[in-house]
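Deliverable D5.2: sample structural annotation.
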Amino acid sequence: MARRTRSRRYLGAAALTALATGAALLSVPAQAQAEAAASVTVQPDPSYKQEKFEGWGTSLVWFANATGDYPPAIREKLAKLLFGDDGLALNIARYNIGGGNAPDVKDYLRAGGAVEGWWKAPAGTTREDTDWWSADDPADWNKDADATQRWWVDRIKKDITHWEAFSNSPPWFMTESGYVSGGFDANKDQLKSDSVDDFAAYLAGATKRLEKAEGIKVDTVDPFNEPNTGYWGTKLGADGEPVGGRQEGAHIGPELQQKVLAALAPALKKAKVRSEISAMDETNPSIFAQNWNTYSQASRDLVDQMNVHTYGTGQRTTVRDLAKAADKPLWMSEVEGDWGDGQSFTDMRPGLGLAQQIVNDLRELEPSAWVFWQPVEDYDNMKPGGESAKGGNWGSIQLPFSCTSKDTLESCPIFTNTKFDTARNFTHFIKPGDKLIKVNDTSSAAAVTANGKGVSLVHVNSTTAPRTVTIDLSKFRTISRGATVTPVVTSADGKLQPQAPIKVGDRQATFTVPAQSVTSFAVKGVSGVAKDAALLSKGHTYTLTGVQSGKAVTVAANGTNLVLGTGNGTTAQQWRLSARHGETGARQRYVFSNPAEGKRLAVRDNVPVVEPDTGDRDPATEWIMSTTGDGTWTLVNAATGRVLEVGGQATNEGAAVTTWQPNSGSNQRWTVTDVTDEAAGD
């Protein structure tokens, strides 16, 4: 499906243009500043380029449900902070299809959490009545449902380039417990097995009605939210009323997930909804991989877009490689956090924590979109005595979720914290249509601009001392005489403060960033890829050395299998790049041959082998290479989705080199060394 784009004026771009016309350029020698406590050289590398970045987004619940009927002045200020060009400038929105508790259940969910369902129950319906609903009966649908969240849909639809609908829970009458806050056993499936088709029809029908009513096109539908977890449970008090479980949620294990996916595809078609399917919005990459590896190939084929949250940060690279193997777009579709010590709107730690989270997600996960859970949080819930004694810093924007139609901006104030400020260092400089590229520094992320004539780099300095940052542009083919780097700094002293442009000299520019700061560097006048930048060149010869073992991939004595071997680039350890397929960048496919044997590297029955090179294109002989910029790589086989690894994490000479599902283990990472000169001399 083609992704829509829109043009907008970003705060950063406008400020930089004004500054560049009114300030003298600083040459690198004139940039002498106080000696920094530390220094780093950051090298953006456009030879490793991701797909077009779709942008930045948010889920609409619960803040949209809580604030959709607020006075116009409050809603409008919020909308500009979130979607306006001077605010977060978000361009992706995720609409929550509410499940909804039975009419006779008193609301016990958190503020904003009781999202109205799209069903319309007959008068007198109770929680015990579960067989009344039919997707084919118009009387069972409420076309006017969810007015508060839908106010937001109408307000922001001109700002949004990708709409996604998702579900936290099926309606109460499709659940085992009868409540949308989860099962009485949070680790058992909550969706009734005989309600799978109804649930799919409900999602499709709600999406159809939303599209028609609001005049939007929903691009993707995700039927799950953190489904294979023990988060979602309902507890009842002595009077039989629910007292625990404050938000919608439903445990749906991998087996049941696949049944939902199989039902959703025909349901969307029947409803004439052209949305693609995304899945499965798991809480962290590890559980996502666990679920995905359980899916059959048929189930995987039903998923058009892979969605994962990063509340856990392990195995980001696992999901990255699973997405590359499946050749599907990957979203970081939800995360939020605190990063601080109690509610504060001036402490830089929350802003720095969010900024580093974004950098790590972009570097390790390689997502095509990055989405907030919700940048707007309930001030009353986050203040001291709310969720915790000290309060919290969830959200970039906070206001009370208890305001009324009579409130004003004075009586219902809106606060922004440092997360709002540092997030704009990303959303105003890494824009939809840009392409994220490799960076050698774990505190930096970078992207080539959509027109190919510039670079945006964001650097996080979480330390309490200034840091000298040298940006090395030597990996670009062309650097114009007038090339400049303009820093835009967010720190305790200011928000998105443009600095004087620095003239690039000797393919570098240097600037000292303040302590506890996030700095965006807008680079103008660079383009292309330097001839020596690419990791692999056709016709060159390489060795692949295991990170864990320190030994090289070697053709075994039988001339077919692979083992670990010692030595320094012996002929049995040499691999020549014989072909490249697909676009250049992070998803390009490589074919390797062993010059000594005249055979190519393939995978047969999940075992890597060298076999005669027929010259025909075969996915089993194609490898996709991934890196975080640390100099090590994984090799994903295009046919099997498995990566090259050392079996059992062995390190001894002669240990078998095999393939396995990606798991981010060090036995699956390799260093690549060009030994072309040595090979020519053999």
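Annotation notes: The longest strand covers residues 478-491. The chain has a mean pLDDT of 93.
The annotation will be released with the project's public dataset once the embargo ends.
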